[in-house]
Amino acid sequence: MSKVLVTFSTNSGSTEAVAQAVAAELNQAGHEAVVRRIADIRDLGEYEAVVIGAPMILGWQSSARRFVRRHQAELATKKVAYFACAMRLTAWEGQHLPSAPLVLDANLAEPPEKPGSLSLKERFTTTGYYLKPMLGAAPQVMPLSVAFFKGKLEMFRLKWYQAAFVMIVVQAAPGDYRDLEFVKAWARSLSGTL
Q1: How far apart are the first and last CA of the chain?
Q2: At what angle do helices 62-70 and 127-136 cross, to 10 degrees?
């Protein structure tokens, strides 16, 4: 089995719990998985695989995008998976999606309110809108899987502009919607490919 880094960025701490759940499942499957904040990672040399997670806040959190861009050459030689925690995701049948094995939390993905037409909030929450900057940050890196999980929203933990975006565009209700059993199932599915 392999040594796996599960690294994450977080806005209010809820993504860390998802990263811990992923690592616990990988460890249970026989891997040696460690969890570290993206800000604490300087070198990836000792890891055979890397799982990178971050919340969707005005897109995949910028620290995650910077991390994959900075470590692109090294990540391109490793087995990699991405995950994101979000409050809304519009699964639109007509969109062109980049080629990446995609896993969507059924509690998160919703069709457009009007078939064939996207509202403003739906345009900013489509699978393609979310995926493009995730995969575009480091084009050399081909993730084995990209998962979107429903997250946790505590408005008081957001910066004012993040809260404004959530209230006006995303229109998500505060609460903890994480499905850690779904997260664990994804981690188990990763285990064989890592």
Answers
A1: 8
A2: 40
Which tokens sit at 106?
A: 């059924």
Q: Are strands 79-86 and 49-55 parallel, antiparallel or unpaired?
A: parallel
CATH (domain of 95): 3.40.50.360
What distance in Å separates the CA atoms of residue 68 and residue 12, rounded to the nearest whole number? 21
Sign for the CA dihedral angle at 163, 167, 171, 176 comes to positive
**Residues 94-107: pLDDT tens digits?**
555 556 688 889 88
Please count the structural domains in the chain.
1
Using alpha carbons only, what angle is made at residue 88 by residues 93 and 20, rounded to the nearest 5 degrees? Answer: 115
The range of the structural domain enclosing residue 132 comes to 3-191
